[in-house]
Write a structure and sequence with these properties.
heterodimer; A: 530 residues; alpha+beta; 3 domains; 10-stranded mixed beta sheet; 17 helices; 19 strands; B: 118 residues; 4-stranded antiparallel beta sheet; two-stranded antiparallel sheet; 4 helices; 22% helix
């Protein structure tokens, strides 16, 4: 349990791209934190972002970030000296940095230091990696060539090291691509506790094992990394740990104003989970325990890029109102491989629903479903999945029993096929059931549009082949040029950029410069924040 | 793959949970939905079990045609199933039993549950 030493306060104000956009603002208004972490990426998010980027090279990142930064978030970060660490960069950290830097300049924060953690995107090298046997499935087997060729995105989960080094270089904001969720928090701790400083002094590679960065006097650095990772895991899903999606939902006050979590993390790896005073929700042993087991798999071996976490001996103790102490995490050395999030397009799908009233609601619903199946029977590759929500079809046996009939019932169809036309025929076959099936069926809307289906494929890659790096020097160069505000600014910026070392991305840099210069030409106070 | 965490509402009830919630019990309850292996891991520190059910989503979270494509509801759904527990053990640990329960075995709703998925 934390005892009087230095405590680092880290918030997790978002659980996915689609969570409450303004939560980080509410959190910062209600509490002081040292680091604000925002996780925007789930399994398929990267692939969706890659598709967006292919259509428009300024997109492909979590634009929700920009919305809350513009609505007052950036101003709060600056006023409170809170560092922002996020994987909002997604498939296009460069464009994300461009937008955020442009916003910072427009709001008068011209020396805002923005770092990018890049190198997670291994898709351009995928066939080469596969040919060399460096890429495998989760069981260690090589993947076949046709699958490798079909992948539309492949991003390795980067660990905490590069984040820590970006912060150590003075970054106010760290924008990452596909880093592991908990590594956002671990990277912040490596910076806060001076481990990153040690690493810089020792010239340790940015992706070297982070336990080797610990101060000499630390006896069990892996257990500390494990504790920080667990704290990260507990807050990475935002308000799911403070009473959202909790079994005790009926007893939890004010879910309307549910507070997002803050982890108070100690040097020894222990932490206290809490939330802003006055916010809704509840931080209890049960709610924290639920999040602790969320997507954890084998509790003795939760793999992250930084450590193998063992939570079997972890204790959760309520030590105050909305305060749960977390102790006892244990760590083993990280594996030689990194998990890769990849996807390929796997046919087309669509869904549609209809409402069926009583009398005989269930019988009518089944008849309606039968008619649809028979009308589409010629489409051999079309898979039709029917559910009658409300009848308990997705529930286990031995639980709540279905009544003989229901006053009304929904039918929900979801279909897929390799052929888009099959799905189009389905979508044209739903509305006719209203006039050509049993009585009283209603609720059809516009024909559902066939959508391309993305299949997630987790892979493993040898971590030696993934070269994560921090792109901050170019931004520092740019910042210097901007703050000097000399005449011929543009020419100077580009001259400087030309001298940037070869491991930096010149195309992105030029775009950033252009964007920033455009922002500078606009009248001050253009944004929603002065 | 679906991940369901089941946590004893009171830490001292953990032995009852371990005795009642097994892979066999889960397999029977989820017989119609789960096609793969079921494994139950122990998390003694917090008095919990972490249950992994493979091939439970008809095609994986990103391509499943189910309304609940990721199995997010399956934790709460599991809570609706009652378990049989050893009466003597339950009484010793002060686990509240149903009044209608039989002599040797009693039934209770499962203590708390984490609705989670992989």
């Amino acid at each position: 349990m934390p005892t009087g030493g230095k405590i680092t306060r880290i918030a997790g104000a978002g659980g996915f791209w689609g969570d409450q956009v303004m939560a980080p603002i509410t959190l910062m208004e209600g509490a002081d934190v040292d680091y604000l972490t925002m996780d925007y990426l789930s399994e398929v998010t990267m692939s969706i972002m890659h598709k967006q980027k292919a259509r428009d090279n300024t997109s492909g990142w979590a634009t929700d970030l920009f919305d809350w930064l513009e609505a007052g978030g950036l101003k709060l970060l600056r006023e409170k000296s809170t560092k922002l660490v996020t994987n909002a960069g997604g498939a296009n950290p460069g464009a994300c940095a461009e937008a955020v830097l442009g916003l910072a300049c427009a709001l008068g924060w011209v020396d805002c230091q923005i770092a990018m953690v890049v190198g997670d995107d291994i898709h351009p090298r995928i066939e080469h990696l596969n040919a060399d046997g460096i890429l495998t499935d989760l069981s260690g087997k090589e993947i076949d060539e046709s699958l490798a060729g079909r992948l539309i995105s492949a991003n390795a989960y980067i660990g905490a090291g590069p984040i820590a080094r970006a912060l150590e270089q003075g970054a106010d904001i760290v924008l990452c691509g596909r880093v592991a969720d908990a590594s956002l928090i671990v990277g912040s701790m490596l910076h806060s506790e001076g481990w990153a400083k040690n690493a810089v002094a020792a010239e340790a590679p940015i992706c070297s094992p982070i336990e080797s960065w610990a101060p000499m006097e630390v006896l069990h650095p892996l257990d500390i990394v494990a504790g920080w990772t667990l704290a990260g895991h507990l807050i990475e899903c935002g308000a799911q740990v403070t009473g959202g999606n909790a079994d005790s939902w009926a007893d939890i006050s004010d879910l309307v104003n549910l507070g997002y979590p803050i982890a108070e993390i100690a040097a020894d790896g222990s932490s206290v989970i809490t939330k802003p005073e006055g916010s809704g929700g509840a931080v209890t042993r049960a709610n924290v325990a639920e999040q602790m087991l969320y997507e954890i798999g084998d509790p003795a071996s939760y793999f992250t890029p930084d450590v193998i976490l063992d939570i079997t001996a972890v204790s959760l103790d309520e030590i105050g109102h909305d305060r749960v102490a977390v102790t006892g995490a244990r760590g083993r050395p990280r594996t030689d491989t990194l998990k890769v999030s990849s996807c390929y397009s796997d046919g087309w799908f669509a869904s549609a629903s209809l409402l069926v009233p009583g009398p005989q609601a269930i019988a009518k619903a089944k008849a309606t479903d039968y008619i649809l199946h028979r009308r589409l029977a010629g489409l051999e590759e079309l898979v039709i999945h029917t559910e009658f929500p409300g009848t308990g079809i997705t529930m286990p046996k031995g639980g709540i029993e279905l009544q003989e009939d229901l006053p009304e019932v929904m039918i929900r169809w979801s279909v897929k096929s390799p052929n888009r036309t099959d799905v189009e025929i389905f979508s044209k076959s739903v509305a006719p059931l209203v006039l050509t099936g049993p009585a009283g069926v209603s609720g059809y809307s516009a024909r559902p549009r066939p959508r391309s289906q993305l299949r997630f494929v987790p892979l493993l890659v040898n971590r030696e082949t993934v070269e994560a790096r921090v792109d901050i020097p170019m931004l520092r160069t740019l910042r210097k040029a901007l703050t000097e505000r000399r005449p011929n600014l543009e020419a100077q910026v580009f001259n400087r950029l030309q001298r940037i070392s070869e491991n930096e991305n010149r195309i992105i840099t030029k775009r950033i410069a252009g964007r920033v210069l455009r922002e500078l030409e606009r009248p001050i106070g253009r944004g929603k924040v002065d | 793959m679906v991940n369901i965490g089941i946590i004893a509402r009171q830490r001292q009830w953990y032995p009852v949970l371990k005795q009642a919630v097994t892979s066999g019990w889960l397999a029977e309850a989820w017989e119609e939905q789960v096609e793969g292996r079921i494994k139950v891991y122990e998390v003694p520190g917090i008095g919990a079990l972490n249950c992994i059910m493979e091939k439970a989503l008809q095609g994986g979270g990103t391509v499943s045609l189910r309304t609940d494509a990721q199995g997010k509801s399956m934790g709460q759904a599991t809570l609706t199933v009652r378990v049989e527990v050893d009466r003597a053990l339950a009484e010793r640990l002060e686990v509240p039993l149903d009044e209608a329960s039989q002599d040797r075995m009693g039934t209770i709703p499962i203590p708390v549950l984490a609705p989670s998925s992989l």
